[in-house]
Specification:
The structure holds 3 protein chains of 3 kinds. By secondary structure, chain A is an alpha/beta fold. Chain A is built from 5 helices and 8 strands. In chain A, strand 1, helix 2 and strand 2 form a beta-alpha-beta unit. The longest helix of chain A has 20 residues. Chain A is globular and about 55 Å long. The N and C termini of chain A lie far apart (about 60 Å). Chain C is built from 14 helices and 10 strands. Chain C has a 5-stranded antiparallel β-sheet with strand order 3-2-1-9-10. The chains are: A alpha/beta, B alpha/beta, C alpha+beta. Chains in contact: A-B, A-C, B-C. At the B-C interface, strand 3 and strand 4 of B face strand 3, helix 8, strand 6, strand 7 and strand 8 of C. The complex binds iron/sulfur cluster. Iron/sulfur cluster (SF4) sits at the interface of chains A and C.
Chain lengths: ~170, ~150, ~400
């Protein structure tokens, strides 16, 4: 029994270790202006190189641990967003990137907008900015990874209210 | 360029205005739209830049459709009016195939019936958008289109 | 199964961000050959045209700037020019020059971005990384001028809000020197690289007649020999005193679209240098009334992807009555529907990328739906892309 417990603990630790070192992400644009998307793409390119944290952006939700969302949620994209989220294996984390993804941003009050991502999905990390600088996006990802190391449970698992992890905007020039 | 266009359209013209130096606005009857557009196309005058639908509001009771054609700096706008409660125009897709997108937009955004247009699917609005609610009409209110999934 | 075999229907989409709305394409294929194509937009439809009617003229500027994050400046420029026309004011010459300058820098950023993304679609990630690295040079300059990397908000109604001093001008010149050298290299790749040629030469050919008939705009039109450029046809802002050389190619295939865009970069460098050398002195803004006099205006500017068309109507209040936006991608989409028919399925990603529909970052699900055999298979965009890469290996 005792042995079993440590064995499970170790497995848990191993899983966390693996998750922290190689989170795979999928990016979904649910109505953004593209500004955030190009900044996310920019984080992959040589100058910012997000892959040094092990984060890899790839195509299929079924392989992803992290869902990076940009843009306000449009009516038409809502179902796709939920479907993609549900296709992801547990535990899964959501990062909302950009003012739009936080609250609807500049598009608040438009007829096709439902609001921010957290209207639809439980969000773990909010990265403000319009668009956030690549550094801020990386910061958001790293904050998530640090929290994971500290035993953070995904927002989806914690019952009831969401506890957002605010990420400060870096000093934009 | 504008003179050439004016000549081409002369037969159907009801009124013309030149709001800016390089522009010519020609008012037409909706029934004459197809031959007028065909005449422009046949003479290879410019290309269709856009179709704008303007709702003139419930009091005026009309919707105005603007067909913008550009050739170089010149812009010719064909203006057509149609009653709001029975908005109807013929399709110009026969002579301008690329008009299909704009006509689909007119149908869903303003509730204009476009006769004989090849594709009547929605282009922009979501699948679950209520029928007969047209967001670009002036009397559209957000409440007309309740947000889905308010339970989530 | 009957003799009349139902074609495969392949929806591509729903997600790929375009200028205003990402599209959902549906292709029917017979074996590997596309027989029919249709388009459904709306996943990123936010209702901006209506939203702008509910905001004041000034607020609408910032909303419209967010139609597209890649070419935000041209949207703002088209809108400002239109509103200024309505109000009967004209921005001072220095403001006009800075507008054009930022627009040209934006063109560099957009073309480099596109080159990278298109290269990625061709399975040429090396070039993607290189061009995006070089793109950071422009991003630095834009940030230096306006304070933001994307959505610069350089425009105000009646002028611009940022000035260019000597230090910035020098930085821009230095940046251009570096980029010019790199662009030479890219031109070399586009013209000579064997892999690239296999994926681009003779693919997606659009004849001159088709280009004119479909009303395509921008580099897509110029690659088919249609010399259409608003900067030349209907000059605005600083282009009225600054002649632009139109770059055209005759071949009309994908390679021509690459060449046109890369060659255009050289012209852009020249324009920016000239603008810097001849920057007029003076004010940056003029006063503009809060209520815009009633009237209508049409404003056309040349976005990186082609002609951007704005129609503005004012009813004399402090809010716009109607704003119509026609982004360049819309007519170009129409060309995709025509071009892909009769082509290999494997070419679809490249043809789509060829018109530069802001094809950046998303996963796009591709569902292969075989009604005839009752199979239902889903492909991601990634798999379709891989398919394209493998076919041409
Ligand atoms: S936050 Fe800004 S940049 Fe990002 S999608 Fe929204 S408007 Fe575009």
């Amino acid at each position: 029994m005792e042995f079993n417990k440590t064995w499970q603990d170790m497995l848990e630790q191993l899983k966390t270790w693996a998750r922290v070192n190689s989170p795979w992400a999928i990016h979904f644009n649910s109505g953004s202006c593209n500004g955030c998307d190009i900044e996310i793409l920019a984080t992959l390119t040589p100058r910012y190189d997000m892959e040094r944290f092990g984060l890899k952006l790839q195509g299929s939700p079924r392989h992803a641990d992290v869902l990076i969302c940009t843009g306000p949620v449009t009516r038409q994209a809502r179902d796709r967003l939920i479907r993609i989220y549900e296709q992801m294996p547990d535990p899964k984390f959501v990062i909302a990137v950009g003012s739009c993804a936080l609250s609807g941003g500049a598009f608040q009050g438009c007829y096709n907008i439902l609001g921010g991502i957290d209207q639809v999905l439980p969000v773990d990390v909010y990265v403000p900015g319009c668009p956030p600088r690549p550094e801020a996006i990386i910061d958001g990802v790293v904050k998530l990874l640090e929290q994971l190391k500290a035993g953070y449970q995904p927002a989806a698992r914690r019952s009831g209210v969401l506890r957002p992890v605010p990420v400060p905007v870096t000093d934009a020039g | 360029m504008l003179k050439a266009a004016a000549r081409l359209l002369q037969r159907w013209t009801q009124a013309t205005v030149t709001p800016e130096p390089e522009r010519l606005d020609v008012t037409l009857d909706a029934a004459d739209l197809v031959p007028a557009v065909a005449a422009l196309q046949e003479a290879r005058w410019g290309y269709l830049a856009a179709i704008t639908g303007v709702d003139l509001g419930p009091e005026a009771g009309e919707i105005e459709l603007l067909y913008h054609f550009c050739a170089g700096a010149a812009v010719v706008t064909l203006r057509v009016r149609t009653p709001r409660n029975q908005a109807f125009v013929p399709s110009i897709c026969d002579s301008v195939p690329s008009a299909s997108f704009y006509e689909r937009e007119l149908m869903e955004m303003l509730g204009v019936t476009v006769a004989n247009t090849p594709n009547t699917d929605r282009l922009f609005l979501p699948d679950d958008w209520p029928q007969e609610v047209y967001p670009l009409r002036k009397d559209f209110r957000l409440e007309d289109a309740p947000l889905p999934g308010s339970d989530t | 199964m009957t003799a009349e075999r139902e074609p495969f229907r392949i929806p591509i989409g729903p997600q790929h961000p375009s200028l205003k709305e990402p599209g959902h394409f549906e292709f029917s294929v017979d074996g590997e050959i596309v027989t029919q194509a249709s388009l459904r937009l709306g996943y990123v439809h936010r209702g901006i045209e209506k939203g702008a009617e509910q905001r004041s003229w000034v607020q609408a500027l910032y909303l419209l700037e967010r139609v597209c994050g890649i070419c935000s400046h041209v949207h703002a420029t088209a809108y400002c020019l239109g509103v200024e026309k309505l109000a009967g004011v004209e921005a001072p010459p220095r403001a006009q020059a800075i507008r054009s300058l930022v627009a040209e820098l934006e063109r560099i950023h957009s073309h480099l971005l596109w080159l990278g993304v298109a290269a990625h679609e061709a399975g040429f990630d090396m070039l993607f990384m290189h061009s995006w690295r070089d793109r950071e040079t422009v991003m630095n300059l834009l940030e230096g001028i306006t304070g933001n990397r994307v959505n610069y908000s350089a425009n105000l109604l009646g002028g611009v809000k940022c000035d260019i001093d000597q230090r910035l001008a020098d930085a821009i010149r230095a940046g251009l020197d570096y980029l010019e050298e790199r662009t030479q290299h890219y031109l070399d790749v586009v013209l000579n690289d064997a892999l690239f040629l296999r994926r681009t030469r003779g693919i997606g050919v659009m004849s001159r007649e088709d280009a004119e008939r479909l009303g395509v705009v921008g580099p897509t039109a110029r690659a088919s020999g249609v010399a259409r450029d608003v900067r030349v046809d209907a000059p605005y802002a600083a282009y009225r005193t600054l002649p632009v050389q139109i770059v055209t190619e005759m071949a009309g295939d994908l390679q021509a679209r690459f060449i046109v865009r890369v060659r255009e970069l050289f012209e852009t460098y020249r324009l920016i240098r000239t603008l810097l050398d001849t920057l007029p002195e003076g004010e940056l803004t003029v006063r503009i009334p809060r209520r815009i006099p009633p009237g209508e205006a049409i404003s056309r500017v040349e976005a990186p992807r082609g002609e951007l068309f704005y129609y503005l109507k004012s009813n004399g209040s402090d809010q716009p009555e109607r704003i119509k936006i026609r982004t360049p991608t819309l007519p170009n989409f129409a060309s995709v529907l025509v071009l892909t028919v009769g082509r290999q399925l494997a070419d679809v990603p490249m043809i789509l990328a060829g018109i530069d529909p802001c094809f950046s970052c998303n996963d796009r699900m591709v569902a292969i739906h075989d009604t005839g055999e009752g199979r239902d298979r889903r492909w991601t965009w990634e798999q379709l892309r891989q398919h394209g890469i493998e076919v041409y290996r």
